[in-house]
Write a structure and sequence with these properties.
The chain is globular, with a radius of gyration of 18 Å. The chain has one domain: Metallo-dependent phosphatases (Purple Acid Phosphatase, chain A, domain 2, 4-Layer Sandwich). Strand 6 and strand 7 form a beta hairpin. The chain has 6 helices and 12 strands. The protein is α/β, with parallel strands linked by helices. The strands form 4 sheets. A 5-stranded mixed beta sheet has the order 6-7-8-10-9, with helices on one face. Strands 1-3-5 form a 3-stranded parallel beta sheet, covered by helices on one side.
Amino acid sequence: MGAFLRFLDSEKKQMGHLVILGDLFEFFFGFKNFFLTEKPSAFTDYLPVFNKIQSLYHEGIRIKYFEGNHDFFLHSFFSDQFGMEVDVYPNGYEERLEGKRAYIAHGDLSNPKQWTYRTFRRLLKNCWTYRLIHLAGPRISRWVAQKLSDMSYQKYHNDDQSTSPPAFKAFAHQKFLEGFDIVILGHSHFPEEVEEGIDGRRCLYYNVGDWMVHRSFLRFSPPDRFKLDQFLER
């Protein structure tokens, strides 16, 4: 966490927007009174990150958050808890970047063959499950989420992964055929950049990778410069 906070500090002077592609924590649910309780919160360790994001917001940096497969019910969380106006996207979103059509998403729905996961996701991300999580409360919900996360990681992520999962590039290619010029995803834990020529258009796919292993991030400098980078402390 300390490295992430230092990264934000190092970038804030040249940052106009901060876009988070989800899964900032193992479990992130928009509980009401998330921190404003008399008892110690199960999420107190999240506070330094939220306080840092809040300080960036007050310095005029616009924040966007794309919910991942570990994020739930965040539509009013930032405004209710921290007084920040954060644009929250439960799914993918089309953005205009200097006139180019860009598709941005967490990326967990990139593989259409993962029917089991897609069904499980629908069960998790619905109003009835949200009510159940609220009833269970932060401590029990976080414990259950950690167990599910461990199972999911063992099934879908390989620590020895040396090549990118092909489904993400295939997804980006399909978006290019639909008319998008840029596709930006996460979720794969594998940072990569791919350029394609589609009908005379220069199309770009980026996966921002992950923070825990690669400490990778994507920087966009208008009008059209992207750089997939890595935070290296000296």
